[in-house]
Amino acid sequence: MRRTLVIFSQVYVPDPAAMSEHLAHVATEMVRRGWRVIVFTSARGYADASLKFPSRETIDGVEVRRLPLSSFGKRSMLLRAAAGMSFMLQCALRGVFVRNLGALLVTTAPLAAYAALVVSVVRRVPLKSWVLDINPDQLIALGWMRADGIPARVLEWLNGLVLRRAADVIVLDHFMAERLSAKVEGPLAVHIVPPWPLEEQLEPVDQATNPFRAEHGLEDRFVFLYSGNHGLTTPVSTLVDAAIELQDRDRPFFLFIGGGFGKADVEKAVATHGGRNIRSLPHQPLERIKYSLTAADVHVVTMADEVVGIIHPSKIYVAMAVGRPVLAIAPRPSPLAELIDRHRIGWWVPHGDVDATVAAIEEILATDPAELAEMGRRARRTVTEHFARDVMPARVADVVAHSRVAPALSPRNAESD
Question: Which of 242, 233, 241, 243 is nearest to 330 (CA)?
């Protein structure tokens, strides 16, 4: 009989979260390889609890089973913790009774990982941990939890149990591998598999025929675009301050698309300075994304200093997929700075240094358009050759399908795709 892979995740398609899409790609690949795949997920949207999904359905051969009382939205940490606890208990109870269980896959959510830990021990099956961000490290870095507090210490202890039990751990970069390896004594089987662009129709669009530029009066402007979540881990304040410094220049234009905590900085700048060279727009509909993303001459991607090794800046792959150079506002060393340097696709400045950001923007404006176009082509080639959607999910699936414990690898020498 077919072996069964069980996945625990509070989000799964069609819930509009990046994690759900990545999981679906891997789950579908496992089905293609002959596995039966069951996903236990939430019956409601993770960010928007008003979204309600069928309790059972099959998507691309994947059996999706949605559990009640597993998401109350993101209005408060208390509600999120309650939903996570409910989800964890339901996963543990259901998981132990799955027939022909061959492996367990769990992603970032800590409570789901604890359910997988219990099922793995009871059923004596391999546990595969796919780490997309690290907590409580992220909560501590953002100042939402004390490192020496009891909640953080309990979570660290539980996470150590999961890591020691895991047959394989998949991370997004070597910074994350180093951080996780430091949390446990002894070897850790680490595999580095970077993420991949998710949008179906990401492709370069000629500026002259892009309807988005015409609609927003950007035909004669040089557009610096920040698109996505304006979060605490991806701050936009340095770029906003640089835009204000350049407000008397006719050519540069700064477009911010998306939402989040940092959106207030953008809205304040527009209200205070009249929006002459700054515009704020909400998230764009899916059918317009390829036009909004390609309206940029240069994409801006940011990363807070405190979160290197905790999160991975996935936005850069979207910018690369549409063939645009990148201005990274981030620490060095960091995944962003390494991608910029290794593939020669843009510029790097430190977060908080407005003068350096303004100088970089001036340099970009003075760069030969042919050189900018070549940077964009290199970025596009890099994505198609190294981070392709038709290749990367298979590399995650290779780790998941591998039934024995992988040999121990040091973080710097971890298996890297």
Answer: 233
Torsion of CA 414, 36, 197, 11, to 10 degrees: -100
CA distance 265 to 278: 11
Do 37 and 4 meet the contact criterion of CB atoms below 8 Å apart?
A: yes
Q: What is the pLDDT of residue 72?
A: 66
Ranges of residues in the chain with a pLDDT under 70 are 47, 72-77, 109-110, 199-201, 403-417
Query: What is d(CA 189, CA 118) in angstroms, rounded to the nearest whole number?
Result: 20
Q: Tokens for 237?
A: 């304040």
DSSP, res 413: G
Six-digit token string for 273: 């300075």
CA angle in degrees (0–180, nearest 5) for 69-149-189? 75
Q: Can you give the pTM of this predicted structure?
A: 0.88
Rounded Cα gap, residues 302 and 351, in angstroms: 8
Structure tokens at 68: 């009640």
Query: What is the chain's mean pLDDT, rounded?
Result: 89
Cα pseudo-dihedral 269, 225, 280, 313, rounded to 10: -90
Specify which residues 252 forms β-bridges with: 222
> Do residues 33 and 1 make contact, with C-beta atoms less than 8 angstroms apart?
no
- Residue 269: name the closest of 226, 328, 220 by CA: 226
Cβ neighbours of residue 158 closer than 8 Å, sequence gap 6 or more: 110, 114, 117
Q: How far apart are CA 35 and CA 146, in angstroms?
A: 42
Give per-residue pLDDT as tens, 243-294: 999 999 989 999 999 888 888 889 998 888 877 899 999 888 877 888 899 9
What distance in Å separates the CA atoms of residue 350 and residue 306, rounded to the nearest whole number?
Answer: 12
Are 20 and 9 contacting, i.e. CB atoms less than 8 angstroms apart? yes
What count of other Cβ atoms lies within 10 Å of the Cβ of residue 404?
A: 8
Q: Which residues contact 182 (CB under 8 A, 6 or more apart)?
A: none
Numbers of helices and strands, H then E, in the chain: 15, 15
Looking at the chain, the whole-number percentage of residues with pLDDT higher than 90 is: 62
* Distance separating alpha carbons of residues 45 and 74, to the nearest angstrom: 10
Task: Residue 129: name the closest of 148, 102, 145, 109 by CA.
Answer: 109
